[in-house]
Amino acid sequence: MNSKTYESVQGLGKTGQELENFGTAQNQLNAEILKEMRIMQLQTNMLTHHLKEAQEEIAKLKEEQVKYILDLNKCQAEVDSLKHQLEVKDSFRAEAEALRQEVDRLKLTAKLNSNAIARLSNQESS
């Protein structure tokens, strides 16, 4: 991009000194504007690059988030399974305790019956 828009032409019947001064000032302004535009273009390119990097990082983080959510769901399913197994064990434990108490009751009943039979037998033989 060329920033020079005015070229001085000297000679008879040509533009005067005022126009030449204006042209020189305009060329300087154009050069400054071009410099600023190039700086802004570099900054824009840099920001575009940073934006692209940030978008890539966000995409990676989203992928990781999905993995963590899947892992969390898997862990939650394991916890639910373990809770169910614990409930089943507690149920078996309660049933086993009830069965043990019933066995103890039957043992006691059998012992009392045995003692009663033995007394009856002793009474009959006496």
Q: What's the mean pLDDT score?
A: 88
Alpha-carbon distance between the two ends:
137 Å
Low-confidence stretches: none
The description of the largest β-sheet is: none
Structure classification:
mainly alpha
Summary?
Helix content is 87%, strand content 0%.
Task: Characterise this structure.
By secondary structure, this protein is mostly helical. It is 87% helix and 0% strand. The chain has one helix at residues 17-125. The chain starts with 16 loop residues before the first helix and ends with a helix.
Task: Give the topology, please.
Elements: H1 17-125
What structural keywords apply?
single chain, rod-shaped, 1 helix, 126 residues, mainly alpha
